[in-house]
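Write out this protein's structure.
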Amino acid sequence: MLQSTGMKTRPLRCALVGNLLEPRVAECAIGLVAHLQRHGLQVLVAVEDAPSAVPAGVQTVARAELPERCQLVIAIGGDGTLLQAARLVAQHDVPVLGINRGRLGFLTDVLPQDMAASIDAILRGDYSADRRRLLEARLVSADGAVRSELALNDVVLLRRETGRMLDFETRVDGRFVNSHSGDGLVVATATGSTAYALSCGGPIVDPQLDVLVMAPVCPHTLSDRPIVIPGASTIAVTLIGRGEGRADVTCDASQLGSMQPGERLEIGSSNRSVTLLHPPGYDYFRLLRSKLRWGRGEEQHER
């Protein structure tokens, strides 16, 4: 939900997250470091991301320490970079701003040419704070062991063997939904509705809605369609069949683990969330028009 506050105080330290060995990201980061330092902010980068030489005055720390050492995280790259930053700050109340150096950039919505003005506005307190709830996936093995991971976009169950369909059942809050045959299943938040779920025929969902999208991947029957359920629901997925079907489970493209018949995948809302900062003028529908190339141009529609 859009809120009027995101940072309790003006930040003193800012962390940059991104692949600083990639030239386009590095070029953007160099300009951003200079601008932040002119505002008197200390800049931190993860030692895992930093090249051998970093700009003067930049401090390198372990990636896991960044959220504890800063009041603002700036993700430079594509949406994948911002998803990594979101998981990084999930245990901390640190907002994230995305600078787009990737392709589409639904989450990294600030263009490089606008980053200085956007930073200035945010430091003045002129921004929208967009709080997005995270999903939690729990992979329960046959012996009861549990592996878990958080996701901002989606949790994906995908067949492991090439040329073999995956057979699985889904339940929502204990109620049987369907038996599926196909390549797998995407469970997406409203935030992730424009990612993998969209390519599976799922709907675009306004991120202010608290819902989940269940989108089958390449279902064997045409009647197996995406459905939208309340965001507080818990989804249980179990593999069925003769025992040879195995699947991989990912959270925002990060591997959670492999799943075999007899194991259970549980997906539901986490009590964790991440706050995305948007500069003045942010408009979700304008973003959709730009990224999806809708219509004849926003200028004609806004006259």
